[in-house]
Amino acid sequence: MMVEQNKKVFKWQLRVDGSSNTHGSRAGVVVSTPEGDSVKCALCFDFKATNNQAEYEALIARLKVCTVLGADEVEIFIDSQVVVNQEVGAVFGERDSWITPIKEYLVNDVLPSDPLEAKRLKYRATRYSVLNGELYKRGYSRALQKCIGPEEAEGILRNIHSGNCGNHAGGVSLAHKTLRQGFYWPTLFADAKRVAARCEACQKIANNIRQPPELLQSITSPWPFAMWGIDLIDPMPTAARGAKHAIVAVDYFTKWVEAEPLVHITESNTISFVKKNILYRFRIPNTIITDNGTQFDGKKFRELCDKYGINNYYASPAHPQTNGQTEVVNKIIKHNLKAKLVAKKGSWADKLPQVLWAYRTTERGSTGETPYSMAYGAEAVIPVETSFSSPRVQLFQLKLNIDMLKCGLDELEERRECAQIINTAYQQKVARYYNSHVRERRFTLGDLVLKRVNPGTRDEVAGSLADKWEGPYQITGIAGHGAYRITREGLGELPRPCNAQYLKIYYL
Fold first, then answer.
1. Is 431 exposed, middle or buried (CB count within 10 Å of its CB: 0-12, 13-18, 19+)?
2. Longest C-alpha distance within the chain, in Å?
3. The Integrase catalytic domain covers which part of the protein (predicted)?
4. Percent helix, strand, coil in the chain (nearest 5)?
């Protein structure tokens, strides 16, 4: 800033010029006093602005300076036709402010021409007073609260929210704190909520959203072994033969489960498992649902599906609800393994067949039948029946048993139909509970969003102080129900769609 002696002028003069380019927005200002002194300064803005916006900002800033210095009449020289054609009073702030009519009535007894508006103003003005030219409201939390115009409200809120003494409070808390500091304006609570919602730091450290964003979409298989879900359990303790992973497949109709330990998660191992445990054992399925891992999304696995006419659907990343049946089975298998192993965790691969047998011979609440009976039409004989001679073991007759098995097969179709009805009712019950917790979040093309930070990509240097959300990203495509394709400037589009559960709107 520089002060010069100029030739004497008889009123305050203000010259403003603004500019904007790819490197930023700036403005130059010259204020001349009636005594002939000149104050020159340059302004740099930390936000993007057009030329006209830069000149507006510079004009507002310098008018405030002129007010503080006691200027009662200012000549303004500016090269923007848009700014010149606007009323300077509107730019300056108070002429169209909510404060003006109340102050005019209290000081000069000026009322609106409309009788109803005049009556309303009189009633409203009873709670206000003018002291030293400033309007104050008689409040409840403080005796007097200074009335603030719209040009200052934003700055006060931002200072209280994120200034040196700011605690990044939520909207309601921010409004209450502003009132306690002695400031008031009619839209205080709405403005406080808006400022808090648009704080970038608050958006990136906000807690994860627990409520699901979309209604539950139940998956129903049309016939036995037509639709399979496949997933992986890892990491596991190293087993005797070096196995560190397990691959699990579940049939959506019968709830039958197949699982195998794996040493390495590779595409060839995945293909071998699908062939041996699904294609060769049961039938060629109509659909396979997997996650987006490379072992399921590689060229060879796609060729296998194309060869046999299998529809291969992928669950949205980090969204187990789309393959929820497999996730539930994984939890059951891990729970049973923990119970069986106790201390010898490395022998899980040897215990896995026992866990599968236990699962297949246990009635599932979703069907009212065991997976074994849904697959074969009869209940399996388990060890306890031979140890303690159950009635069917004790009274076993070969011919009668064969006849009963044939009758069971004749009855199997009806039992499966009944199980399907029970399963549908079960899914509806689950959906009602799930949907009662839904807080819908849907996005449209072009929306700016933040994405939840994955544990594997979290900033380890920041530790527990790391942001929970990253971005902003832009919605560039809709990949399916509740799944979106997103792009970030400088990174391009993410290779996989992201589910709405891990996105939230970004406020500028």
1. middle
2. 125
3. 218-379
4. 40, 20, 35
> How high is the pLDDT of residue 8?
45
Enumerate residue ranges in the chain where pLDDT < 50: 1-9, 87-90, 92-95, 318-322
3-class secondary structure, 288: strand
Structure tokens at 1: 């800033």
Q: Are 62 and 31 in contact (CB under 8 A)?
A: yes
pTM of the predicted protein model = 0.61
Distance CA 185, CA 105 (A): 18
CA distances from 122 to 103, 109, 127, 129, 273 (A): 11, 10, 10, 12, 83
Question: According to the model, what pLDDT value does residue 274 have?
Answer: 94
In b/e form, how buried is each residue of 377-391, taking b as 16+ CB within 10 angstroms? bbeeeeeeeeeeeee
Residue 265 CA to chain centroid, in angstroms? 31
Cα–Cα distance measured from residue 4 to residue 37, given in angstroms and rounded to the nearest whole number: 6
The distance from CA 453 to its chain's CA centroid, rounded to whole angstroms, is: 10
Q: What is the length of the chain? A: 508
Q: To 10 degrees, what angle do helices 324-341 and 348-360 make?
A: 120
With a CB cutoff of 8 Å and minimum separation 6, the contacts of 105 are 111, 121, 122, 125
